[in-house]
UniProtKB/TrEMBL annotation:
SUPFAM superfamilies: Cytochrome P450
Family classification: Belongs to the cytochrome P450 family.
Name of the protein in its database record: Cytochrome P450
Matches recorded under Pfam families: p450
GO annotations of cellular component type: membrane
UniProt-annotated binding residues for heme: C416
Cellular compartments annotated: Membrane
Alphabetic keyword roster: Heme, Iron, Membrane, Metal-binding, Monooxygenase, Oxidoreductase, Transmembrane, Transmembrane helix
An MF annotation (GO) of this entry: iron ion binding
Pathway field: Secondary metabolite biosynthesis; terpenoid biosynthesis
Highest taxon of source: Eukaryota
């Protein structure tokens, strides 16, 4: 289990085991064997079936870090209701309204990166601040400059703490997740530095959310356009489900912390990995720029990236190789049988097209492994090759995930609501007002610590790349 989560480079063992044992095998965990599964049909079943709940360690993290009313901490019918209600702010029509915000943020990032031209620059702080800006404006309708300084600092601290996972911590998490909920909640009040940061962020996020809701309601009374951000959409008295009492103001406020932290962290990491692959593939970087130039010469459309096959392929390929939820844990809540697309051989050599699992079985939905299955993505599935999305290499099969059969945004009832949002933020890669090129310098490693991150050989979360203006 520790080999799986803390190898020198993420996937060192996992991808070797995938090759050796196939898409279903078991690994030894702290409290018994765990099932690793990357079979597409099996994953689709687990993600959509009520027979599975979130794994104990992951649920523990959600409960510790977030407001109890936050969508990711909610379960069953409450979760369904919150998901449906919040979805109003994340439809493709809604996200199109937020486009000017993303364009402004992208302008600022390119300007800032341009200033670092000719030097070795860690992309993390720049892209992290930019993601926070985009999310703060597009979700709350509030500039990141207006966010409480303490919130921004503590938010960064949480992201930093969650990027440092040690073997002791993994074991402690596994033990903590076995404690009764009441004990875990009580532990949050212990005078431990990390818990203090969590308590502060929760409380500040609440204040920020409450202020945003109050300002939006006032703006609505004054007849302001409410469609410019997620909170506005949700509080729009013309169409909102709030008036049907589907989502209370208090519940909307409770989503603030998760939307800010999770959105910022996932978007930043995906952008960083994208820039790293550009640095590693100068030829592709050049072709992509040529596509941008061609599109800028054509008729101007707001969503220009829709007509840019290389840019689309690039974003998909980045999400394929670097899914934020590389391994997602589930527990079986009642005995069930998981169907498999590709049968597996049992110890007697018989081919099984399904596997029975008992209540209480912990399993790892191996998203990073699935996204490297040669049977689906091609013989060179471990390579970064965006052209696979354009030349027919990829085989269709069970439809999993909301986008391009990828599971970077998960799938099923808990699918990411902000996936369109995340896609648009990648506009950074087609902004060409200040053309930049990235060049790799040192050896990097990918590391899994609640999410996939880039670390230097000494284990520090950082993405130093050379930036040059062209
Ligand atoms: C590349 C960027 C992103 C990735 C890879 C990503 C990935 C994910 C994943 C894996 C989950 C499932 C978490 C779980 O239940 O365990 C999730 C949930 C969610 N994400 Fe994202 N996310 C991204 C960006 C965003 C952004 C920008 C927002 C909004 C500002 C957002 C909003 C949400 C919400 C509201 C949920 C909860 C859905 C539910 O439980 O019903 N995400 N995301």
């Amino acid at each position: 289990m520790l080999q799986l989560l803390l190898p020198p480079q993420y996937g060192d063992y996992e991808f070797a085991w995938l090759k050796k044992f196939g898409p279903v095998y078991s690994v030894k965990g702290c409290f018994g064997n765990r099932l690793m599964i990357s079979d597409p049909l099996g994953m689709q079943y687990i993600l959509n079936s009520p027979h599975f709940g979130r794994g104990p360690a992951l649920q523990n993290v959600m409960e510790l870090m977030l407001d109890q009313k936050a969508i990711v901490a909610a379960q069953g019918d409450t979760h369904k209701r919150l998901h449906a209600a919040l979805n109003i702010g994340f439809t493709s029509a809604a996200v199109r309204n937020y486009q000017p915000i993303f364009e402004r943020v992208v302008e600022k990032i390119t300007e800032q990166l341009g200033k670092c031209s000719g030097s070795l620059t860690d992309l993390y702080p720049i892209l992290s601040a930019a993601s926070l800006s985009a999310i703060s404006e597009a979700v709350l309708g509030c500039s990141a400059r207006d966010l409480d300084e303490d919130f921004v600092a503590n938010n960064e601290r949480i992201i930093f703490l969650s990027s440092r996972q040690s073997s002791t911590q993994i074991i402690a998490d596994a033990i903590a997740s076995r404690l009764p909920k009441i004990v875990r909640r009580a532990a949050m009040h212990l005078p431990i530095a990390a818990f203090k940061v969590l308590r502060t962020v929760k409380s500040l996020a609440h204040q920020i959310g409450r202020r945003a809701v109050a300002e939006k309601l006032l703006a609505a009374q004054q007849g302001a356009n409410m469609k410019t951000d997620v909170f506005g959409m949700l509080l729009d008295l013309e169409q909102s489900d709030l008036k049907k009492n589907v989502l209370t103001e208090e519940e909307l406020v409770a989503q603030t912390g998760f939307l800010m932290i999770a959105g910022q962290e996932s978007v930043t990491n995906t952008l960083v990995f994208g820039c790293l692959e550009l640095a590693r593939h100068p030829e592709f970087q050049h072709q992509r720029r040529a596509e941008i130039h061609a599109s800028l010469r054509g008729p101007s459309t707001t969503f220009a990236y829709e007509s840019m096959p290389l840019l689309n392929a690039f974003i998909k390929e980045t999400l394929r190789l670097y899914p934020a939820p590389a391994i997602h844990d589930y527990t079986t809540v009642q005995d069930t049988v998981i169907p498999l697309a590709d049968g597996i051989k049992n110890s007697r050599g018989e081919v099984m097209n399904h596997i029975p699992v008992q209540k209480g079985q912990v399993m790892h939905v191996a998203i990073a492994s699935y996204q490297r299955l040669q049977s689906r993505w091609g013989e060179d599935a471990h390579q970064f090759r965006p052209s696979r999305w354009l030349d027919g290499t990829i085989k269709q099969g069970q439809a999993v995930g909301p986008y391009a059969n990828l599971l970077a945004f998960l799938g099923g009832p808990r699918v990411c609501l902000g996936w369109r949002f995340a896609y648009v933020i990648h506009d950074i890669h087609h902004n060409d007002n200040s053309p930049l090129a990235f060049r790799k310098t040192i050896f990097f490693r990918t590391h899994y610590s609640n999410t996939l991150i880039l670390v230097t050989p000494s284990g520090e979360k950082a993405a130093p790349l050379y930036i040059t203006r062209i």
